[in-house]
UniProtKB/TrEMBL annotation:
The keyword Hydrolase belongs to this UniProt entry's keyword annotation: yes
Species name: Caulobacter hibisci
CDD domains from the UniProt entry: Sialidase_non-viral
InterPro entries per UniProt: TAT_signal, WD40/YVTN_repeat-like_dom_sf, Xyloglucanase_GH74
Origin superkingdom: Bacteria
Family recorded in the similarity comment: Belongs to the glycosyl hydrolase 74 family.
Signal peptide: 1-33
Gene3D superfamilies, per database record: YVTN repeat-like/Quinoprotein amine dehydrogenase
Region (Disordered) residue spans: 521-541
PROSITE patterns assigned to the protein according to its UniProt record, in alphabetical order: TAT
Protein name: Uncharacterized protein
Length: 757
């Protein structure tokens, strides 16, 4: 019988209090801050997929029921009645739960599902159990750590339920051997009989490693209520043996030697006792150079190699995804076969012969046009770790990639070599990391900078955008700025895409719809940047770019700030400005730029559109601002100019929020009762002149989204306990035209936006 929502909510709250250190605070204050938000409606800005999905699992007992796990955006359930994926962990405040290492639908009760959650080895881990398909969860913290966002996250499935005794769960751990629960996940203990105990959490050094990779029960080896006798465990660490078998319910184990040294990645057992295992030289999803596919006759433990196409020298790649249907057909995917490409094979004779689906596969990406990546045809896919066939419909199959999930309703056509049509099966999924956002006062309501997929112009928040940032395509878009009084002029900076390379700066004259690349010259003998944490060998490539109020001057923040007045044709160094300072353009006066030196506390101003700077007095700020120094390219700059108000600035410090109305000469500390981490300014409240303020901030131990209508004097929370998103908030932008609307970039759940309900 499904449990009621109240007990599972209480269990969830208990685990969250422990994991977010709220127990050190007065309980009433923490709960009050968490449960009295302003009524807001929250939705996703639609892009569709966008990130790596390591696995999809169909329910074996109910048609049309499936689950998927993501590496940093939680888990989803396919809701056939609505034709969309439903996010299941948006109400969880513990960020580590968003990295899902395994998903296990109950093999008897369609209402029951388990998740194994933990982002990485340093992070807390838990088993989550639901008895109403993921609507509510009982959270069970566990002592063994996981790696939902580490290398090898495509392995599995690691969590398995005994189909003949569903109280018994077994988890193949990365670090701590084989873990067993006999009470539906409520308690766990390490199997003393399993011969590989794991490296343990204290092992040094502590590289990412696969550990144990999968668990599979043989249903035919037991009877309902009495448990299964036979189960298999894969090993994805270098070891003498990579497959182990027990025929006494786990009391003892024997290795099944294989004639190769590859690591066991995934496995599938068909109804006739054939175990198909994919092997690779590495755990993926990248850096795999070789691999194979083998079939085990479980009655005799005899191996047969059935590798569809052996990797060749200098071409690389291994194998990962594997699935069987109820007729006995089997399919596998390659992994990291960059030369010439990854692919998918299907066999109807147990692997004796294979059909390669690549040549005759067609992709219809109308619903997510960004998958074209500026090319005439969408890519077949890469990082193809997940593969699943609907147990109730052998024509429906899906495979996962680094950017989407492709599905087809014509899978059996491949047996005859006929074309198959694939479509993105991502309705409802937003699984991306957002780095920067900008809301314009005219044109499209939102511009976005994504990790891995460049960025977009969002004309319609409910439709996957057609205008992806190209020419150049960035891997990551790290910064977007627009001209305060000429907002059609937009600039952006980012990290080159690994396939496209090229410039790291671009500008647009049509609100970001089309772009022209720019490249600023390198500063010779540049001093190192202040602080730590800059990734990459050359901080020049991390340089942000801004534009002055009328769009006539672009400034790039290289070691010495440089400006261009001719759209990048020529550049000149801003004179008088110390190295590594980052000026902010006034939103109204095109001549004015202001910079704060966070190492010395000094202020520098330009009144000639960035050509030169001079030191100027400043008061009202803390004496030591060095802790506010930004040392990573994806962190928003703490000094912000106010749209529509010349000389108005806000400064976000770890020591408080500060405001200036005279160009930064004098700052006033604004204490509204929250610690502001990031700030943005949107449409003013009715009857007021100053913009509404929105913040990512903290109060009473709760990290949340806040709004102030009185210039920071007081704040109200606008996200609620149903919209926590793991509290993995990375950036935000307040809408410049719609009062009360705020866009929030998450680390794994895409862009969400809220507005008063």
């Amino acid at each position: 019988m499904p449990i009621s929502p109240a007990p599972s909510r209480r269990a969830t709250l208990k685990s969250l209090l422990a994991s977010t250190a709220m127990t050190a605070l007065p309980f009433g204050a923490a709960v009050q801050a968490a449960t009295r938000p302003l009524p807001y409606r929250w939705r996703n800005v639609r892009v569709g997929g966008g990130g790596f999905i390591p696995g999809v699992v169909f329910s074996p007992v109910e048609k049309g029921l499936a689950y998927l796990r993501s590496d940093m955006g939680g888990a989803y359930r396919w809701q056939a009645s609505e034709g969309r994926w439903i996010p299941l962990l948006d109400d969880q405040a513990q960020g580590s739960w968003q990295g899902v290492e395994s998903v296990a639908p109950d093999p008897v009760d369609a209402n029951v599902v388990y998740l194994a959650c933990g982002m990485g080895r340093p992070d807390p881990a838990a088993i989550l159990r639901s008895e109403n398909r993921g609507t509510d969860w009982t959270v069970i913290p566990v002592p063994f750590r996981m790696g939902g966002n580490e290398d090898g996250r495509g392995l599995g499935e690691r969590l398995a339920i005994d189909p003949n005794d569903t109280k018994t769960l077994v988890f193949a751990s990365r670090h701590d051997g084989l873990q067993v629960s006999r009470d539906r996940g409520a308690t766990w203990s390490k199997s003393a009989s399993f011969p590989l105990p794991g490296l343990g959490l204290n092992a040094r050094p502590a590289p990412t490693h696969g550990g144990l990779s999968f668990v599979i029960f043989d249903p035919s080896s037991g009877k309902p209520g009495r448990g299964s006798r036979t189960l298999f465990v894969g090993v994805a660490d270098p070891s003498e043996h990579h497959l182990w078998r027990s025929d006494d319910g786990g009391a003892s184990w024997k290795p099944i030697p294989a004639p190769h040294a590859y690591l066991a990645c995934k496995a599938a057992l068909d109804g006739q006792g054939r175990l198909y295992v994919t092997y690779s030289s590495g755990i993926g999803p990248s850096n795999v150079e070789g691999g194979a596919v083998w079939r085990l006759d479980t009655a005799t433990n005899a191996w047969t190699e059935i590798t569809p196409a052996k990797p060749q020298a200098q071409r690389g790649g291994g194998f990962m995804g594997v699935a069987v249907d109820r007729s006995g057909a089997v399919a596998v995917t390659s992994l990291n076969r960059w030369n010439p490409h990854d692919t998918l094979w299907r066999s109807t004779d147990h692997g004796a012969t294979w059909t390669d689906l690549y040549a005759d596969a067609r992709r219809d990406v109308t619903t997510t046009p960004f998958l074209h990546w500026g090319e005439p045809e969408a890519d077949f896919g890469w990082w193809m770790a997940g593969l699943a066939i609907d147990p109730f419909d052998p024509d429906f199959a899906c495979y996962t990639t680094g950017a989407t999930i492709y599905a087809t309703r014509e899978f059996t056509k491949a047996a005859a070599g006929r074309p198959t049509t694939w479509f993105p099966w991502i309705e409802g999924i937003e699984q991306t990391a957002i780095i920067t956002l900008a809301s314009l006062p005219e044109g499209p309501p939102l511009l976005s900078g994504f990790g891995d997929i460049s960025g977009f112009v969002h004309d319609d928040l409910s439709v996957s955008p057609t205008d992806q940032f190209t020419t150049p395509v960035f891997g990551n878009t790290n910064f977007i700025d627009y001209a305060g009084v000429q907002p059609a002029i937009v600039v952006r900076s980012g990290t080159p895409h690994q396939r496209h390379g090229g410039p790291t700066l671009a500008w647009s004259g049509d609100h970001g719809r089309t772009w022209a690349p720019m490249t600023a010259p390198r500063i010779p003998n540049a001093p190192p940047p202040p602080g730590q944490g800059r990734r990459g060998p050359d901080p020049h490539d991390d340089a942000a770019i801004v534009v002055n109020a009328d769009g006539s001057v672009f400034m790039v923040m290289t070691a010495q700030a440089q400006i261009t007045r001719d759209r990048g044709a020529s550049w000149q160094v801003s004179q008088g400005l110390p190295a590594w300072l980052r000026p902010v353009p006034d939103r109204v006066d095109p001549r004015r730029f202001t910079a704060l030196d966070l190492q010395t506390g000094k202020r520098w101003i330009s009144t000639d559109a960035g050509a030169s700077f001079a030191a100027a007095p400043v008061s009202g700020l803390p004496a030591d601002l060095s802790a506010d120094q930004v040392t990573w390219r994806e962190i928003p700059w703490p000094l912000k100019a106010v749209p529509g108000q010349a000389g108005h600035l806000w400064f976000v410090s770890g020591q408080g929020l500060f405001r200036s109305t005279d160009g930064g000469a004098r700052f006033t500390h604004i204490d509204g009762g929250i610690q502001v981490d990031q700030l943005d300014l949107g449409a003013p409240p009715p009857g007021r002149h100053h913009p509404a303020l929105f913040a990512i901030g903290r109060k009473d131990g709760v990290k949340a989204i806040w709004r102030s209508d009185d210039e920071g004097a007081s704040w109200v929370r606008v996200n609620d306990p149903h919209h926590e998103y793991g509290r993995r908030f990375r950036c935000l932008a307040a809408d410049m035209r719609v009062y009360g609307r705020v866009y929030v970039g998450t680390d794994g759940r895409g862009i969400v936006y809220g507005e008063p309900s």
